[in-house]
Specification:
By secondary structure, this protein is mainly alpha-helical. 63% of the residues lie in helices and 11% in strands. Helix 3 packs across helix 4.
Length: 158
């Protein structure tokens, strides 16, 4: 018979910190998505547009874009199909790999990014950045970096 190791339950302070993090994460993403709705975009759409707009030649391999946006290849493919229909991106065959595809930002997609980005940044400021003093932002970043690094490392493991 195996001996079970007792789960180290969260203390009240740990539980409070965890639930506050969950609340802020959900509420903030909900608000940011709501602020993108007038432009006909979701948070996922915007993240894809940002990735493409910041990439060389405004293009990324679909597999790299899926990894970057934490989406399955199938889900990303459906997302890109919707964005193609809206004229924001196109798929282009990869010359060096016949099975590979690039997602490429169209001129219309870039124009929409230029239009939306200032509104999105204002939303991030209004609902997050401006609510915290600079020293709290510095402390928050320092506190969350080890978690982000750990989770990035976990992505590469099966």
């Amino acid at each position: 018979m195996e001996t079970e190791t007792a789960t180290p339950w969260l203390t009240d302070a740990e539980q409070c910190a965890w639930r506050t993090h969950l609340d802020v994460s959900r509420l903030l993403m909900h608000q940011l998505e709501k602020d993108l709705q007038p432009f006909g975009l979701t948070n996922n759409d915007y993240e894809i547009l940002v990735n493409l707009s910041e990439s060389a030649d405004h293009r990324m391999r679909m597999s790299d874009l899926a990894t970057s946006t934490l989406q399955s290849k199938s889900r990303l493919s459906h997302q890109i199909t919707r964005m193609e229909t809206a004229g924001l991106v196109v798929r282009v065959n990869c010359e060096s790999d016949r099975r590979g595809l690039y997602a490429v930002l169209t001129d219309g997609g870039m124009e929409l990014m230029r239009k939306v980005a200032p509104h999105h940044v204002a939303s991030v400021r209004r609902h997050f950045i401006d609510l915290l003093p600079p020293e709290a932002l510095t402390a928050l970043r320092a506190s969350l970096e080890p978690v982000a690094n750990h989770l990035r490392d976990q992505r590469g493991k099966a």
